[in-house]
Write the structure tokens for this entry.
Amino acid sequence: MAHWVSLRSLAKEDRPTSTWAVAGRMLKYLRDWTGQVTIGIVWLVVASIANAAFPALTGWIIDVATKQAASGGSARALVLPALAIIAVGFVAILGQREQILRLGTAGQHALYALRNDVFGKLQELPVGYYESVESGDLMSRLINDIEQINSFLSQGFRRVLGSTLALVATLVAMLWINWVLALATLLVVPVMLGVSRLFGMVARRAFRKRQESIGDVSQTLAEELAGIKVAQAFNRTAANRMQFADRNAANRDANVSAAAVSSAFSPVLAIISTAATAMIAALGGYLAAEGTITIGVVVAFFGFARAFFNGVSQLSSLYAETQAALAGAERVFQLLDLPVTIVDSSTAEDLGRIEGRVTFDDVYFRYQSGPEVLHGIDLDVEPGSTLAIVGPTGAGKTTLINLVARFYDPTDGTVSVDGRELRDVTLHSLRSRLGIVLQEPFLFAGTIADNIRYGRLDATESDVRSAAETARALDFIDALPQGFATDVGERGATLSTGQRQLIAFARAILADPAILILDEATSSVDTRTERLIQDGLHAILEGRTALIIAHRLSTVRDADRIVVVEGGLIVEDGTYSELLAARGAFARLHEAQFGE
């Protein structure tokens, strides 16, 4: 039995995942583009060295100019330093261009791979997971959090690496020119590192809370938009505005908190760097006055100090962006790490061609939370027969067909097809032999033909048309201006409920399943559409095993067999006339509907 892991509970743990673990996992997506990354890093190093050379070259040209002025020499001596500055500037610009191109390209390919992994994971997760997760929080992870990762992989990674290399190159140049002033500059580094570490712990939590609050807002928006008709009908719009305002305020406060944490970091570092610059100015001036160093060295060190502390300041702002990306990545990786419980076993085999016998052997089932739903179900459905499953709401009818499709596994007992336990066959081979029509038909954006062909992509136009005709959908489709090429809109919004249901039947027919499952497939359509469907059912069900859940007992009159489920147990089993004559549970349901 699957026990779903709550993303919400994972996300709200106080302690974040290790920064290095999350960052390392993000960067693993760059491994297929090692060549581009390596070239980009080489250009980063070149650009960093070129930029670090500017202050030294500036000091050189000042010393040369001072010497020539003092000795009355020619200005030609300034040509070489000037050309060197121009050459270094050209190299720095070229390096900037190449690193953006190489690392940016690699970052986008890494993001492409990550999005594919996430979508693949969503396809693998069992149906039960989606019944337990908040859709808004999930969409926030798929959109907002991945966008944070996108920002890091396409720009942030390059900028962090570039700023770090620039700091290293500047430091090396400082040590090479004058180690005394360099060491004086480095005295503030431990203080900066301590402030950065403290900020990192606070910022990570702030950004994670911000992302969670975005999920709450997204959840509210998704729910309210889906239920806008109900909200207006029950005059709940004012109350809903207040409820949304509360969640929006929480999101606002979380964003303000994250901004406050970010804004506090740069001023602290600015104060530290200003104090360090003043110390370097005093020490440099003293050494120049003593004749230990030249004025050019002092000027160069001022350039180095500005570059060094600007680099630290830039890293501080990038650190905030990096923490936001890490918070987003942590939430995305929580999704990727969810266990997939409905999977093929190592010994699973292809189901092969089947007759369609379905057997429940002492089946018990419970969902993640709540009481047991099924209590020892024993049921054998003959191949090619039609079994109707009826009973009150909450009796366990839908759970039975969910087990046949292996959306869930039984807590105890087995479900088999043609004598083969479902856990012993591959999911693909099982589901390729099933056709399912649900109470609420779901259509995808695209044409009518696309939706009918959904489960059989190689179907010809003739196959699609034939399936629509069998499902009694051909008349209304041909009456549309664009026929099968008509765009149904999001979730089939341009069609009526009955029309969507007929297309859902055509989709199931085209898949040519050996076992057809109808879950309240006619309960949401009008009587005329129901008659159309009933007329087509005889052709649809011919030669197939059918499991039909129905509240309208008139739709199961011709079923070969009817079972009545109450409280997770099969309480009656027989034909329509036999169960009426028994004057039991089925007769009571019949009397409640028809007053007979």
Summary: The first helix runs from residue 7 to 11.
